[in-house]
Specification:
The chain is an alpha+beta fold. Helix content is 15%, strand content 31%. Strands 1, 2, 3, 4, 5, 6, 7, 8 and 9 form a 9-stranded antiparallel beta sheet that branches. Strand 4 and strand 5 form a beta hairpin. It is globular and about 50 Å long.
């Protein structure tokens, strides 16, 4: 399976006056550099909204594969319950200076063992030393084994703010 998320449109993010965001496109980050950080990361922060409007943020393990973020867990966790009511969410990597922020929607998913499940299992190998190594059939059941997928709508990234601050729009 190839990347199922279309290549993003790339431009400058909008910041208030005085942040020093360049007026030109010189120095914009390529999506491939940002995506490489999403693939390599082992700790992600997922922000959701509770039904009463209060925010909720939780650290998540997951993998960036096929242009999307895949993660699993019990459907009764606070973030999964939040996403049932409002699928909009944001995903952040840990650094505030090597910044990657992805906004999109998260929905339940499932993965057949002989296709996506095998590729997800291979990608999750990065957590083996932490004691987590799901097999290819982990997400093939009727409930998908708690698998969820975040499809990006937009992303912001910078590795040397403000000169390379870049916005990526996927739709």
């Amino acid at each position: 399976m190839t990347d199922i998320t279309p290549a993003p449109r790339i431009d400058r993010p909008v910041f208030p006056e005085g942040y020093g965001i360049p007026d030109t496109t010189d120095g914009l980050l390529p999506w491939s550099d940002v995506e490489a950080r999403l693939v390599a990361a082992t700790a992600y922060w997922l922000a959701t909204t509770r039904p009463d409007g209060r925010p909720h943020v939780v650290p998540r393990w997951g993998v960036w594969l096929d242009g999307r973020f895949w993660y699993d867990g019990a459907p009764t966790t606070r973030h999964a319950v939040n996403l049932t009511t409002n699928p909009a969410c944001a995903l952040h990597l840990e650094s505030g200076t090597q910044t990657v922020i992805v906004e999109g929607e998260s929905h339940p998913a499932r993965a057949d063992a002989d296709d996506l499940g095998a590729r997800l299992s291979a990608a999750f190998v990065k957590y083996k030393d932490q004691g987590y190594s799901p097999g290819p059939d982990s997400w093939a059941g009727e409930d998908g084994g708690g698998l969820r997928v975040l499809t990006p709508h937009r992303a912001l990234a910078w590795f040397s703010f403000p000169g390379d601050a870049t916005r990526f729009r996927f739709r």
